[in-house]
Specification:
Helices cover 22% and strands 34% of the residues. It has 405 residues and is α+β, with helices and mostly antiparallel strands. The strands form ten sheets. A four-stranded mixed beta sheet has the order 1-5-4-12.
Length: 405
């Protein structure tokens, strides 16, 4: 249902007969004989009398004149005293010569037109609402809003149409608008938030302290947004692994041995994220291998973090959105962003096995061999496959202890 809007203007109006806004100086002076204006003989009478006679019909027309402006957002109706007129009657009468025949020019107008039409155009215009998305830590990673094109009402055309309607016998004009298209599309946003990679590693759920540390670190990383070209730092985001921050003592690898330390298990989180980053096409700027092979990834696919010195750092040409998930026995990372067009995979090769040293002792220990391994990133695009050496690592053996008889 259309809404009719009546705009009230706080304008002091003189008299209806003086709506043209013209006062005559020396109005008692007589007009030369034989002068006609708009077919009216005004010769021999005063300027004021002549103006009143000539404007009588004009004032009657003004009293009946209405203007309706029709827009998509409403209708706007105007009449006297919001409508006025001007004429050149004052100039004609001042310059009139004996027996002269003259025609005056009248122009009707909307008072405070600039402000009124500006208000209407503002109401009839609509700003562009660009497509947008929301990134969430749980549930569907993204929700999308398609946005809406905008429109701009044509002020100049409306002004011209109002003038034409008031002066050419019209009573209704339409507000015309030009569309303002969105700069982006929803599809472009979806391309910028596509799933680039997902990587999962598994753990023993019975090791409760270690599992707690994994969940703690993964939860901190969940929902992380890495701006295009910015460098991600695992240590900067996760922070120090201390009991005050909710991390528990669990087994860690230190100097080629398994020992107790606060935050054990966090390296599995950094390793899982490292592999997800590799598969997403990230540039790895810092990583560190463990001193011993780990059970949850193949050699040359681990990324140890420790204190402030050993960090995991990477970057990507597009903005990345990180989601983590921890189940009963797994931790998983998903990386979203704009693809560079390549499909990535990682290959590892064990180049050499390092035998475990053997020594005698009171408590037997099985020991394990060390390794020398290499990791490769494989990129495929348009049927072309390239394979590049990423890293070469040396993992220490664990000595075997035999009990002497």
């Amino acid at each position: 249902m259309k809404v009719f809007v009546k705009l009230s203007l706080k304008i002091c109006i003189l008299a209806l007969a003086l709506s043209a806004g013209v006062l005559f100086l020396g109005c008692s002076e007589k007009i030369p004989s034989g002068v006609t204006v708009d077919g009216v003989n005004v010769g021999g009478i005063s300027y004021g009398e002549a103006a009143e006679i000539i404007r009588k019909d004009r004032d009657a027309e003004l009293a009946e004149k209405t203007l309706k402006i029709v827009g998509k957002e409403g209708e706007y109706v105007f009449s006297y005293p919001e409508i006025g007129y001007t004429d050149n009657l004052s100039e004609i009468l001042r310059k009139a010569e004996k027996n002269g025949n003259y025609a005056s020019v009248t122009r009707f107008y909307l008072k405070s037109e600039k402000e009124i039409l500006g208000y209407i155009c503002d109401r009839e215009s609509r700003p562009v609402r660009e497509p947008s998305f929301t990134f969430r830590k749980t549930g569907d990673p993204f929700s999308y809003d398609a946005g809406e094109d905008g429109k701009v009402a044509d002020f100049n055309r409306l002004s011209a149409d109002v003038s034409a309607a008031l002066n050419n016998g019209g009573s209704e004009v339409t507000v015309y608008s030009s569309p303002v298209p969105r700069a982006k599309t929803e599809q472009e946003l979806k391309e910028q938030t596509a799933l680039l990679s997902r990587y999962t590693t598994y753990f023993d759920p019975s090791k409760l302290a270690r599992v707690s540390n994994i969940r703690r670190a993964a939860d901190i990383l969940n929902g992380c947004v890495i701006e295009a070209g910015s460098e991600f730092s695992f240590n900067a985001v996760v922070g120090r692994r201390t009991e005050e921050r909710g991390f528990l003592p669990a087994k860690i690898i230190e100097y080629g041995e398994f020992t107790d330390g606060v935050g054990g298990g966090v390296c599995q989180v950094s390793t899982t994220l490292y592999n997800a980053a590799l598969l997403a096409g990230c540039e790895i700027r810092e990583y560190h291998p463990h001193s011993l092979p780990v059970s949850y990834v193949a050699p040359s696919r681990d990324a140890m973090v420790s204190g402030e010195e050993c960090d995991l750092k990477f970057a990507h040409s597009s903005t990345l959105f990180i989601r983590s998930e921890t189940g009963e026995n797994y931790v998983s990372f998903s990386v979203y962003g704009k693809s560079d067009g390549f499909e990535y995979s990682v290959e590892t090769e064990v180049k050499e096995t390092i035998p475990a040293p053997v020594e005698e002792g009171e408590v037997a220990r099985e020991g394990a061999p060390g390794l020398i391994s290499e990791g490769y990133i494989v990129a495929q695009k348009n049927g072309v496959v390239t394979k590049k050496l990423l890293r070469r690592d040396r993992y220490l053996p664990q000595k075997r202890v035999e009990v002497s008889e």
